[in-house]
Write a structure and sequence with these properties.
This protein has 219 residues and is mainly α. The chain has helices at residues 2-8, 23-50, 53-60, 65-90, 96-107, 109-154, 161-214. It has one domain (34-44, 69-211). Helix 2 (23-50) runs antiparallel to helix 7 and helix 4 runs antiparallel to helix 6. It starts with a helix and ends in a 5-residue tail after the last helix.
Length: 219
């Protein structure tokens, strides 16, 4: 599948509308675009801190799943920035990746294409797994929240009016866990998915460019 994706990459549209933009330019723009987006996300996180949102998140979700999703999203976001920086360096005219691609192609074109696909896309597969894990953790938190609610209902000996009022207050804790984890999981998954999608598109262009440059007689 990687080899087919690599061969199809030459027919894909560029990341940006400028047809004459080189891969190195696209990689540079993607990295700086990530830097701006990360800075904006950091500003939003600081503003939420001023509004007390993070304190409310910790208080409303005692399971810690929401905090875990946030930490995981921050770590994967940092990795995406490092990956964009590395792809930017690999797209330079005389990068080590280009030299390695040319050497591999001289030995075996088929093996060179497979190695190039793995070099450009291999690390992304693990990152995609972690991005999907944020959504699954959110669903796990939803289940945990409903379990907490069911446990609280089962602990009520009778459904008298005063006990029902106490029960409703206790059920809000389980509902808060379910809602907070679902919300944070969805936001984290969308945020990481956008970054990884752009990295995948750049990796496709870079792999096609490296393979084209490694082919003897290529323009």
């Amino acid at each position: 599948m990687k080899l087919l994706s690599l061969r199809a990459a030459t027919r894909r549209a560029p990341l940006l509308p400028r047809a004459d933009a080189t891969v190195a330019t696209l990689a540079q723009r993607l990295f700086w675009g990530w830097a701006v987006a990360a800075g904006l996300a950091l500003f939003i996180a600081w503003w939420l801190q001023l509004q007390g949102a993070w304190r409310e998140l910790v208080r409303g979700d005692p399971s810690g799943i929401s905090v875990g999703i946030v930490v995981l999203s921050v770590l994967v976001t940092g990795w995406c920035g490092l990956r964009a920086w590395r792809l930017q360096g690999a797209a330079l005219p005389h990068s080590a990746w280009r030299q390695a691609a040319a050497a591999d192609h001289a030995r075996s074109p088929e093996v060179a294409a497979q190695l190039l696909a793995e070099r450009c896309h291999g690390p992304h597969e693990t990152a995609w797994w972690f991005a999907a894990a944020t959504l699954k953790l959110g669903l796990l938190g939803t289940v945990v929240g409903f379990i907490v609610m069911a446990t609280q209902i089962g602990a009520v000996p009778s459904f008298e009016l005063d006990q029902v009022q106490v029960l409703l207050k206790q059920m809000t804790q389980g509902m808060a866990i379910a809602l907070y984890t679902t919300l944070v999981g969805l936001v984290g998954n969308l945020w990481l998915g956008l970054q990884l999608m752009l990295l995948d598109r750049l990796a496709d262009r870079l792999a096609a460019d490296l393979l084209h440059g490694a082919t003897p007689g290529a323009a």
